[in-house]
Design goal:
Layout: E1 2-5, E2 8-11, H1 13-60, H2 63-68, H3 74-89, E3 93-98, H4 122-127, E4 131-137, E5 140-150, E6 156-165, H5 166-205, H6 211-227, E7 231-236, E8 241-244, H7 246-251, H8 272-278, E9 282-289, E10 292-303, E11 306-316, H9 317-356, H10 360-384, H11 388-403, E12 407-410, H12 422-444, E13 451-457, E14 462-469, H13 476-479, H14 498-508, E15 512-517, E16 523-530
Parallel strand pairs: 12-13
Antiparallel strand pairs: 1-2, 3-6, 4-5, 5-6, 7-8, 7-11, 9-10, 10-11, 13-14, 14-16, 15-16
Helix pairs in contact: 1-5, 9-10, 9-11, 9-12, 11-12, 12-14
Length: 532
């Protein structure tokens, strides 16, 4: 019911709910009981007084009673009639007296002929009113109904007093009040049980968390959502926006729109409404906002197998492509270093073997031969290619081809003397790296002489790059689809990405790409893009 915090105890949400609900219910029921008791007591008193008055009025209208007043001994006629009526109505007494207050009837016959007690007859005898009042007579405190007795000519000749003892009235009220309080006590017990069950249900629905814990989680959630680099928009099951982080606000032109508006008001083309209708996730969907392109992931949100909303996350496609390009370049650099390391390790092993066999001259010849070959390659790259990054990639790919048993040659008249911009350099590396890897893959299962020929030049207004291979080529049916994301003719997963990056990079450089049949028998890719 409570938790210990820093050496002190504090009530939990469950205990607070039970206490406050029960306290509120007890206060309300007690006030209701008090009001009901007061109202019922007043009502019973009024009803008893009205009942006494009705009996008194009925008796006063009886002809026998009126005629008896003119006889020599009225009590002989009036007493039997009054007692019979008293017993029939359950009244405590019916006293009939003359104008001087002398009794003609009384429950105790010996008191007939005495003066009426209570001093409350004046209004009936003098003013002719009918009323009820509380007074104390010979039988004790009582509620009395008083009414005058009129003669045939309309003069007041007597008074009728019908009474019910207050003790009897109080007993009737008390028995009813006890029933009310028993019922209220039962309601309190049921209310305590109900309050406990309600509190347990509420506690369960909020996963047993306390209000301060919920507040802390909310603040953490807001901090996390606002710090995420991806744009996030969430909607409820009716399509109204329930959350939009700062990154999404930067991307979407709100124009006064915010949380609480329908997603259609934002004029976005993200598939949140479709996800709400189908209940199925959609991943890697592409859409545009103005001139920017984004990749969207939309997923439904369920609670106890009931769809309660959907969430979309979207990120700039340009950033994703730049990241992919950076990873591609890193991979290519790493691959080039790995190939060179492997190649030089083989050459060192060969030299070591010759020296161990005491074949010094052969070792020196081998070193001179490899040195000459390396110098020729380095001389070519230094004098024909001004960008060292491009030279490094081509050199690494040549070593990679040698390792794979592929004869890779660069045509002698190739040259790239233009100093590339950062964007051109990165684009060139992406294009060359992915296209050469595709050419190597195409030659893996080829039984022909495995050859790859490269030609590049910056003579003229464009940079031209051409790759030929002796592989099986590309079928006509595949020519229109090879640049589609996910499409591949290779086995395995995570394929169909390289040529997509090539196409996107060429578009960014305002270039063009064409496919022809190579003179070597395979495919020939020709890439060109402007110098500026």
């Amino acid at each position: 019911m409570h938790k210990k915090m820093g050496g002190s105890y504090r009530f939990t949400l469950l205990s607070k709910m039970i206490i406050f609900i029960c306290l509120l219910m007890v206060i309300m029921l007690v006030f209701l009981g008090m009001y009901t008791n007061t109202k019922y007591s007043t009502t019973i008193t009024e009803q008893t007084g009205q009942r006494a008055l009705n009996v008194a009025q009925s008796v006063s209208q009886m002809p026998e009673i009126k005629e008896a007043f003119h006889t020599e001994s009225p009590s002989k006629i009036i007493q039997p009639i009054a007692e019979a009526i008293r017993k029939e109505t359950g009244a405590e007494f019916i006293v009939i007296g003359n104008k001087e207050g002398i009794r003609f009837s009384h429950p105790h016959e010996e008191r007939v002929g005495e003066i009426m007690v209570g001093d409350d007859n004046e209004r009936a005898l003098q003013q002719g009113e009918s009323y009820y009042s509380e007074a104390t007579g010979t039988l004790g405190p009582s509620i009395r109904g008083k009414t005058p007795v009129f003669s045939t000519n309309g003069t007041i000749i007597g008074v009728v007093s019908v009474g019910f003892l207050l003790d009897d009235v109080d007993m009737t009220i008390g028995s009813y009040v006890n029933e009310i309080w028993y019922f209220i006590l039962l309601c309190i017990v049921i209310g305590v049980i109900g309050a406990t069950l309600i509190s347990l249900h509420v506690k369960k629905s909020i996963f047993g968390l306390e209000p301060d814990e919920i507040g802390q989680l909310y603040q953490e959630r807001e901090a996390i959502l606002q710090s995420i680099h991806e744009a996030i928009i969430a909607v409820n099951c009716d399509g109204y926006v329930t959350m939009i982080n700062q990154e999404a606000k930067k991307v979407v032109k709100l124009n006064g729109l915010d949380i609480g508006y329908h997603i259609d008001d934002f004029s976005l083309h993200i598939p949140l409404i479709e996800v709400l209708k189908t209940g199925k996730s959609q991943f890697n969907e592409e859409f545009r906002i103005g001139q920017d392109s984004f990749i969207v992931n939309s997923v439904p949100v369920y609670h106890k197998n009931r769809l309660i909303g959907a969430v979309s996350t979207f990120r700039s496609r340009t950033e994703i492509e730049q990241l992919a390009e950076e990873l591609s370049k890193v991979q290519q650099y790493a691959e080039a270093l790995r190939v060179q390391t492997h190649e030089f390790s083989n050459k060192l092993n060969t030299i070591s073997g010759l020296l161990q066999l005491d074949q010094t001259n052969e070792a020196i010849d081998y070193i001179n031969k490899e040195s000459k070959k390396q110098q020729e390659s380095i001389h070519f790259f230094i004098h024909r290619i001004s960008d060292s990054y491009v030279s490094a990639v081509l050199l690494g790919k040549m070593n990679r081809a040698h390792e794979l048993g592929i004869q890779m040659t660069i045509q002698e008249n190739s040259e790239l003397r233009l100093q590339l911009t950062e964007e051109q350099r990165e684009g060139f590396i992406t294009i060359v790296g992915n296209m050469l890897e595709n050419a190597f893959d195409a030659l893996q299962d080829s039984d022909n002489n495995k050859q790859v020929s490269i030609f590049f030049t910056d003579i003229g207004e464009e940079i031209l790059f051409e790759i030929d291979d002796s592989g099986p080529g590309i079928a006509k049916v595949d020519e229109q689809q090879i640049f589609t994301k996910g499409y591949t003719t290779k086995a395995g997963t995570h394929q169909g990405i390289g040529l997509v990056l090539v196409r996107q990079t060429i578009e960014q450089l305002d270039g063009s790409l064409s496919l022809e049949t190579s003179e070597l028998g395979g495919a020939c890719f020709i890439v060109s893009f402007p110098k500026k």
